């Protein structure tokens, strides 16, 4: 068949949803071929081969046309090796349906075993075990010892995965004894699985013995991929024997080979025990990236098993110590999902496994963290709002100060004009004769012109004495004609005097507050700064600095 023709056929096949499409036609070059020809020429160990897929399709079409159900079952099995992952279960169902049309209990049992293997690869172990047990019912009635022990092996694998280690050990021992003379790869697989079981029940010595036997046999048989798995098994075993450096070295060594095989399950296990080995040596920063790989496998492949669960507990503890509530909460939520999945597939084992973080504690911790995060958000928003308010107030204050400074620079000193006459309404209002009011106002004018208000500790009594009157009259007249209290009136005059000095004479801008207060006759620095702010709306510092900036410009 030409390459061009093969390509055309492949494009047709690629766009087909199922193998049993009605419009598939066997190419002329394959019309005369028998079933044995298709079986012998399909390379089962190679995936996605165009020629093999064409042969499998032709095999199935021929069997359907001839209503040969046993050959249909075998053709579907070939398609499982050659098709897309998502179609494997569909073909597995078809194998069982076709096999049941025959009276061959061996074929029916084999069909159920194939379906179980598909479920096992999909990590649906409970469904896998159900199909294996049905397969065993059929195959145990035959004389095909190879199939009998193959079923024992796949049942053992599922029991290993689900935690029935003692039962699995019995099955793997039987398989190892049988396959040692019958099938090299099956023998190595049985030894490897037996070693894993011994590790799980804590018999690390027997685990190392199985790994050593497997390594020697694997090298002798040149089964290098199995050599890799025996090294990995021993790496995990060394972790439990507290030989952490050796565990890291062995597990790191096999990772490239496991990745090339796209065996994400064993890759994840290697990451976990590398992380555990670093953690046991108090090297948490090195351990954490490996524990995160467990979560990657769960998120991408939905893969988890009971011993890997501990990675989440360690991640939660680590981020709790780091006070990283966001990541702590993420791993708590994920661990709740993990436990839900484990409880579905590992009901037997989940009742025995030690959980530092049980569901009730996880949910409570989750609520506590969520509440704390809400509180932090509220606090953060409150701080932001306060900062915004402060900034707005600062900006408003800045523009207000600029306005007040400008007004102050344009302000002229107040001048009180004497009232030379008064009417009866003034006398009624103040209870003082107009003549007395006029006299006091003239004295106030002299008081201002001669800057008597600059005298230190100017009190109401002292001012009344200077104005030749009593305190009651002074208070009433200042309130009437200046709309101020007596003390405020004096303080304002003092501050106006200082403002003019600062505006017109540079030397005063270098005075201390105490010196400026003494110049104006204030009794204390505090009294001066308070009076300055009350009169101008500005602090002395701001006013003086602006004057200096203005002079510099």
UniProtKB/TrEMBL annotation:
- Which keywords does UniProt give here? Membrane, Transmembrane, Transmembrane helix
Q: Domain HTH araC/xylS-type spans what residues? A: 434-546
- Which residues span the membrane? 375-396
SUPFAM superfamilies under this entry? TPR-like
Matches recorded under InterPro entries: HTH_AraC (IPR018060), TPR-like_helical_dom_sf (IPR011990)
Q: Is this entry keyworded Transmembrane helix?
A: yes
Matching entries from Gene3D superfamilies are given as: Homeodomain-like, Tetratricopeptide repeat domain
Q: Does the keyword S-adenosyl-L-methionine apply?
A: no
Q: What is this protein called?
A: AraC-like DNA-binding protein
């Amino acid at each position: 068949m030409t390459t061009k023709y093969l390509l055309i056929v492949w494009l047709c096949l690629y766009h087909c949803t199922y193998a049993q499409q009605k419009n598939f036609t066997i190419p002329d070059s394959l019309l005369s071929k028998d079933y044995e020809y298709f079986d012998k020429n399909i390379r089962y160990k190679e995936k996605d081969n165009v020629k093999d897929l064409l042969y499998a399709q032709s095999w199935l079409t021929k069997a359907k046309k001839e209503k040969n159900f046993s050959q249909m079952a075998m053709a579907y099995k070939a398609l499982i090796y050659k098709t897309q992952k998502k179609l494997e279960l569909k073909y597995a169902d078809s194998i069982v349906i076709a096999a049941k049309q025959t009276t061959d209990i061996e074929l029916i049992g084999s069909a159920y075993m194939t379906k179980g293997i598909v479920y096992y690869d999909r990590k649906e172990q409970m469904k896998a075990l159900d199909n294996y047990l049905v397969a065993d019912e059929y195959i145990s009635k035959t004389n095909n010892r190879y199939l009998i022990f193959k079923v024992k092996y796949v049942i053992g694998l599922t029991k290993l995965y689900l935690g029935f280690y003692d039962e699995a050990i019995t099955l793997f021992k039987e398989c190892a004894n049988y396959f040692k003379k019958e099938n090299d790869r099956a023998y190595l697989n049985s030894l490897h699985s037996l070693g894993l079981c011994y590790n799980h029940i804590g018999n690390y010595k027997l685990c190392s013995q199985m790994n050593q036997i497997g390594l020697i046999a694997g090298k002798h048989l040149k089964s290098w991929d199995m050599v890799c798995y025996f090294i990995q098994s021993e790496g995990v075993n060394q972790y439990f024997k507290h030989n952490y450096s050796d565990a890291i070295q062995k597990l790191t060594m096999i990772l490239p080979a496991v990745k090339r095989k796209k065996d994400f399950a064993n890759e994840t296990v290697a990451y976990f025990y590398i992380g555990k080995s670093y953690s046991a040596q108090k090297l948490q920063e090195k351990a954490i990236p490996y524990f995160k790989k467990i979560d990657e496998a769960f998120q991408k492949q939905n893969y988890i098993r009971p011993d890997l669960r501990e990675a989440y507990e360690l991640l939660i503890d680590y981020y709790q110590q780091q006070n990283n509530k966001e990541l702590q909460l993420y791993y708590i939520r994920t661990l709740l999902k993990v436990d839900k999945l484990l409880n579905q597939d590992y009901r037997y084992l989940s009742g025995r496994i030690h959980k530092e973080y049980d569901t009730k504690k996880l949910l409570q911790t989750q609520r506590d963290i969520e509440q704390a995060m809400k509180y932090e958000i509220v606090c953060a928003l409150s701080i932001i709002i306060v900062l915004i308010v402060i900034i707005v107030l600062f900006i408003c204050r800045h523009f207000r100060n600029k306005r007040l400074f400008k007004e102050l620079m344009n302000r002229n000193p107040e001048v009180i004009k004497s009232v030379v006459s008064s009417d009866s309404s003034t006398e009624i209002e103040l209870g003082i004769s107009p003549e007395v009011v006029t006299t006091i106002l003239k004295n106030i004018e002299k008081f201002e012109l001669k800057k008597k208000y600059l005298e230190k500790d100017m009190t109401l009594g002292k001012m009344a004495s200077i104005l030749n009157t009593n305190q009651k009259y002074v208070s009433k007249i200042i309130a009437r004609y200046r709309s101020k209290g007596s003390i405020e009136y004096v303080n304002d005059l003092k501050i106006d005097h200082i403002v003019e000095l600062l505006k017109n004479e540079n030397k005063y801008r270098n005075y201390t507050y105490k010196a400026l207060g003494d110049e104006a006759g204030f009794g204390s620095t505090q009294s001066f700064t308070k009076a300055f702010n009350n009169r101008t709306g500005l602090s002395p510092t701001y006013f003086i600095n602006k004057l200096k900036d203005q002079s510099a410009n």
